User: Which sequence fits this backbone?
């Protein structure tokens, strides 16, 4: 929904909050503010955050469910005010299978699924400072879907280790005015861009789970940095920009082969859980997300243009290579949650997450507004014999950021302000065999 990497073409996911990632995979984790590194009774959260926690599944089990997200936003600039809103729905599922001290897991996890669509009033800019595409629909989307295989090994009754490998599918879409940032011949020119790319990558994760006493456990996990190159097609229309420069009556539409490189950060997570009584439990977690080494620039490569005019504008070349500045900061994320068993069937949960916005004002746009800091959550769980169902709700409280002086060329986003608020609703069912 609103926010990330490719959407960052003027610039990155919303619907996911800590940067572009979701706050918890299962409905239970979402209700606890996203805490799950210190162990969870299912493969979904284990494969999402700490594969060592696969050993927490004593019986074969299957989890399936879905997440629904709503985002609302407001953007004000010199051209006026714009309202942004969208809705997204994604399934999830995982399987755990214990084999003695080893537990195997397989799952489908939407790491990031972000889309934004708004009727946007384009601020004048470009080479002449006055090029605008007026009021039009802006669309942007990034999907990162992970198919994961993992294993947890109970080294002792108190200590488990685990690892997982993920096959990642990435799709990027953008339909919006685009200001060329670094290509020497066309730097600062504004074109209307329609881009669609997709690609595959891989990542890995490892973790530990330690139970010094029966009522307390610690979890530690590390996710490797990931790089995905996606390929597709892009159409660029520079007609309005050229007309404002006095070049009229030419075919200003061109088609390119497109390549977009997305880099996703390394992540370290440390979590704890404490079962204070038979009914009451507390969880906490802290994450370090290395955005600074991943979201420094967005590499956009448009190749083999089919229009001779563009070759002339590109000084005889057929490629338009551009690097969009992002300059995100590293991020610390703090999560807290508690759950209370009302009886053998029903459990209630609440949670909270705090983080600082990683996006600097200098590169912030409506398409990169991953600016939420405070999140509150709640949920309800029901269990009977081998079957359970969990419902989780998250509300990312309204957050706003102002850009006084943008670092993006032609400074169209200077003197602008963006506000975003997000709701999540998640349902996960689980059955033991």
Assistant:
């Amino acid at each position: 929904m609103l926010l990330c990497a490719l959407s960052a073409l003027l610039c990155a996911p919303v619907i996911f909050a800590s940067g572009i990632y979701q706050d918890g995979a299962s409905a239970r984790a979402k209700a606890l503010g996203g805490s799950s590194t210190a162990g969870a009774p299912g493969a979904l959260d284990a494969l999402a955050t700490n594969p060592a926690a696969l050993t927490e599944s004593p019986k074969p089990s299957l989890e399936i469910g879905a997440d629904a997200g709503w985002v609302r936003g407001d953007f004000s600039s010199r051209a006026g005010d714009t309202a942004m809103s969208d809705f997204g729905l994604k399934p999830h599922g995982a399987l755990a299978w214990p084999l003695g001290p080893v537990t195997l897991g397989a799952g489908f996890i939407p790491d990031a699924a972000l889309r934004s669509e708004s009727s946007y009033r384009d601020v004048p800019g470009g080479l002449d400072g006055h090029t605008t595409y007026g009021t039009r629909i802006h669309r942007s989307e990034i999907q990162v879907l992970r198919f994961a295989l993992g294993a947890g090994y109970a080294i002792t009754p108190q200590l488990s280790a685990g690892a997982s490998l993920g096959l990642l599918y990435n799709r990027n879409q953008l339909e919006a005015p685009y200001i060329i940032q670094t290509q020497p011949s066309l730097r600062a020119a504004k074109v209307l861009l329609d881009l669609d790319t997709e690609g595959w990558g891989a990542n890995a994760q490892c973790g530990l789970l330690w139970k010094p006493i029966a009522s307390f456990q610690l979890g530690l996990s590390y996710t490797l940095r990931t790089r995905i190159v996606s390929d597709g097609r892009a159409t660029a229309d520079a007609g309005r920009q050229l007309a404002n420069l006095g070049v009229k009556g030419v075919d200003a539409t061109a088609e390119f082969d497109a390549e977009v490189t997305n880099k996703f950060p390394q992540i370290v997570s440390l979590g704890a859980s404490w079962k204070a009584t038979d009914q009451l439990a507390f969880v906490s977690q802290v994450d370090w997300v290395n955005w600074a080494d991943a979201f420094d620039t967005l590499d956009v490569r448009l190749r083999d243009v089919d229009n001779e005019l563009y070759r002339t504008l590109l000084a005889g070349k057929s490629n338009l290579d551009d690097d969009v500045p992002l300059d995100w900061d590293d991020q610390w994320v703090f999560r807290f949650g508690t759950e209370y068993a009302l009886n053998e069937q029903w459990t209630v949960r609440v949670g909270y997450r705090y983080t600082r916005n990683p996006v600097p004002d200098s590169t912030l746009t409506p398409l990169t507004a991953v600016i939420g800091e405070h999140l509150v959550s709640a949920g309800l769980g029901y269990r009977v014999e081998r079957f359970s169902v969990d419902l989780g709700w998250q509300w990312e409280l309204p957050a706003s950021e102002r850009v006084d002086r943008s670092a993006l060329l032609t400074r169209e986003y200077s003197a602008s302000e963006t506000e975003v608020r997000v709701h999540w609703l998640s349902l996960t069912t689980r059955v033991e065999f």
User: Anything to note?
Assistant: Helices lie at 27-31, 43-49, 239-244, 308-313. The chain is about 5% helix and 60% strand. Residues 140 and 355 are 25 Å apart (CA to CA).
